[in-house]
Every structure is written in C-alpha cells, then in structure tokens.
Design a protein that fits this description.
By secondary structure, this protein is an alpha+beta fold. It has 8 helices and 9 strands. It starts with a strand and ends with a helix.
Length: 251
C-alpha cells in the first residue's frame, strides 16, 4: 500500500541549469530514477482571503502548516495534503549556524480522492471525511481527512493559488530523494488542474530558476555533501507559495 504519512528532513536549494547538469552526472551514478521520474505537477494551495497561512511561510515560526491539493498531469487523482514543518530544537541552532546548515523537519499526511470528488469538496457538497470513506480507507486516513476538514472550516480556507511545474526525481535505497522543479508558473484565477496558456512566469530572467529539494531520513551522503561544497551550493529557506505571495503583494 502506498504510504500516506511522511516524515523527513527537507533541504531546498536554488540552482542554475549549469549546476543541475553538474549534479546530475554524480546523481545518476549513485541513485536511480524515481517511479515517476518526470512528471507535470499541479499544486492548488488553500488559504483565507488574508493569506494568513501563506504569511507563515515567509515569517518563519517554530511550527507552520499548509493545506494543498496536488494532481499530476494525466492522472485522475487528487491528493489532499496537510503539510507541517517544525523548526529544529533550539539546542541545534548554534550547531546549524556554525556549519552553515539550514534544515526543516517536515511531515506530510494526505488523502487521495478523484477529481470529481474534489470538485464536490470545494463546492461544499461533501466533506473530505465523507468522500474518503467511499473507497477502502484505513482508520488513519479517516483521521487525516477529519483534520483537513477542521482546518478548512476553522480557518475559512479555499483555493487561492495554483502553481505548476515540471519535476524530475531520483531516489536510492536509503530513502534519499532528490527532485528538480523547473518551468514554474502560477495563477490566481480559473483554479482548476489544467495548465493555462497565460499563466505567469515564476522566475523572471533569474539564473537560479531551478528548485532542488533533498529529502532524507537522516544525514546526507558524503558524495552529495562534497559535490554541493565544491559547487558552493548552500541550502536556504524557500517557499513556492511564499514567493507567489510576495509577487501578488507587489501587484
């Protein structure tokens, strides 16, 4: 059964096309293509009219959360995801500053429904809890659906921003996963899971326009640490929806 609960350390890097090519030479020698090696990802982020949850992605707090719906091009399923991130314990902060390390402990829980069911959810015809029990779900899935229902209602959340991109992903037996997200675009109207011809470009003429994410259960392998050091590529706090929020505020 596909896992619907994930916990891992996440690191993000903004890199150039040239840096990606250099990294891939090594990645392909140490990792294998993921099951869905290349995919079109469409993320629909929920928030209220004041973008309070998005603001948390910019004004870093000890604990932050977000709800999004994710679909993949050509795949008739929608994943409703509850993502939380926790700032590492205070005792680790000095170590991180000394080592130049920035990392988040991320947790993701999700429930899978059909596109038709998703339309009923956002049109307030059904709750996620009632939709989840239409298929063979575990008790844990029902609890996740209940938590998402509570947050949608309590924080007055609704679809606000759609972000699309092309993803290339790799994995290894240890649980290490590396993804590259490119060609990012977004829109705040006509919020359906279809790429639009007039979607706005996410990175406008910025050389560091590829987002590399490294997800790992423990420490990074030495071969990757050495390569990142050689290329002078360092992790940084970055949020896709946070970046869009800044662009929206600028008008």
């Amino acid at each position: 059964m596909e896992s619907k609960v994930f916990d891992r350390i996440e690191k993000k890097y903004l890199i150039t096309s040239q840096e990606k090519r250099s990294l891939l030479k090594l990645i392909k020698r140490n990792m294998e293509k993921d099951s869905y090696h290349k995919s079109e990802v469409l993320n629909l982020y929920f928030d209220n009219d004041d973008y309070e949850m998005t603001a948390e992605s910019i004004d870093w707090v000890d604990f932050k959360k977000k709800i999004r719906a994710r679909s993949y091009g050509g795949y008739d399923r929608v994943f409703l995801e509850l993502k939380t991130k926790i700032r590492p314990p205070r005792i680790l902060e000095k170590y991180q500053e000394d080592e130049g390390v920035e990392e988040n402990i991320g947790y993701k829980r999700r429930v899978m429904i059909t596109h038709e069911d998703f339309e009923q959810l956002i049109n307030h015809q059904h709750t996620l809890s009632s939709l989840a029990v239409r298929s063979e779900e575990t008790a844990n899935d029902a609890q996740i659906a209940h938590e998402i229902d509570f947050m949608l209602m309590h924080f007055h959340l609704k679809p606000k921003v759609l972000i699309t991109y092309d993803r290339e992903s790799y994995k290894d037996e240890s649980g290490l996963r590396i993804t590259f997200d490119e060609n990012l675009k977004y829109r705040t109207k006509n919020l359906n899971f279809i790429k639009g011809k007039h979607d706005k470009i996410y990175f406008k003429k910025e050389p560091h326009n590829i987002i590399m994410e490294v997800k790992v259960g423990a420490a990074l392998p030495l071969w990757l640490v050495h390569k990142l050091s050689e290329l002078k590529i360092y992790p940084q706090q970055f949020s896709k929806i946070g970046k869009v929020y800044e662009l929206i505020k600028k008008g």
